[in-house]
Amino acid sequence: MLEVKILLKHAETCDSYVLDMGDMSRALDEDLLSDLECPVCMEYMMPPIKLCTNGHNTCSRCRGRVQRCPTCKAEFSEIRCLALENIVRRLKYPCANRQGGCLELFSIEHIAEHEGVCIYREIKCPFKINWNCSWKGFKSDLKEHAKTAHPGCYFEESTLRSSMFWDRILTVLSCFGELFVHYKRTQDGRLYCAVQLMGTSREASKYKCEFTLRAANGIEQISKTFLVQGYSEDSERSFNSGKCLCLDEVTVRNFLVGNKLNLTVTLSTV
Known about the structure:
Blueprint: E1 5-9, E2 16-20, H1 21-35, E3 50-52, E4 57-58, H2 60-63, E5 76-80, H3 82-90, E6 93-94, E7 105-106, H4 111-117, E8 123-124, H5 128-131, E9 136-137, H6 139-149, E10 154-155, E11 159-162, E12 168-175, E13 178-187, E14 190-197, H7 201-204, E15 207-214, E16 221-227, E17 229-230, H8 235-240, E18 245-248, H9 249-253, E19 263-269
Parallel strand pairs: 10-12, 14-17
Antiparallel strand pairs: 1-2, 3-4, 3-5, 6-7, 8-9, 11-19, 12-13, 13-14, 14-18, 15-16, 15-19
C-alpha cells in the first residue's frame, strides 16, 4: 500500500512538520461517518437515504418505524439524497462489533458479510456442545467464564495431554495471550481432533498444532501437524475441512494404553 507523507516547513520558525495523508484520510472518514449516523438507531445509514421536507436524513430501517422526522418533526418525502449515497459507497465502515475489539474496516458491499461471521460479535459458550451451557458474551469475557464455569476443561498451557476416548470432548487452552478450543470426537468409526483459535483465520495462521498419539511400547507413534483454524461455532466445519487429525477407530484402539489414549496436543507459533 502506498503511503503518502508531506513535509511542511514553517516560514518564520523553519520548524518542520510531517503530515501523514493516511491519518488525514482516516480522520476525514471518521468525520463523515459521524454525519452518517441515523438519529434514531445511531447506526450508519445505508442507501437508500431519504429526506424529510426540511432535508434531514433517517436510515431506511427506521424510516418505517417513525411517523415524522426525529430531528424536526416534519413529514418525510420520497426524495433521496444521492450525493450522500455516493459518499457512503466510497467510505470504509468500522465493524458493528468494534466495542468488542474488532478494528477492521469494510466497504458498504462487504460490511454485512463480515459482521455475520465476525469473531468479536456476541458468541455462545463453546461448551454448549457438551453441557448445553447457556452463556452468551464477547470473546474478551470468555476466558473468565471458562475458568469459572468449566474449570475442569480449562488449562493455561500450550500442551494438552488427552486420555479420554469418549464420543465428544472439548477443552479450552489459554496460551500466547490467546484462547484456543480443542475438539475431540469419535464419529462414523473415526477419531477427529481439531484446534481453533478464538479469532479470525488470519490470526489463526500464526499458530500450528501437533497431535502425537503414542503406543504402550513407547516406540510406535503417529504424529501430524496442522495450522490452527479460525473459530467457528460449527465444529463440524473443522472436522470436514481435512485440516485436522483423522484416524480410523481400529487404528486408534491399537494405541490404547489401558483403555486410555496417550494423545498429546502441542500448540506453538509458526
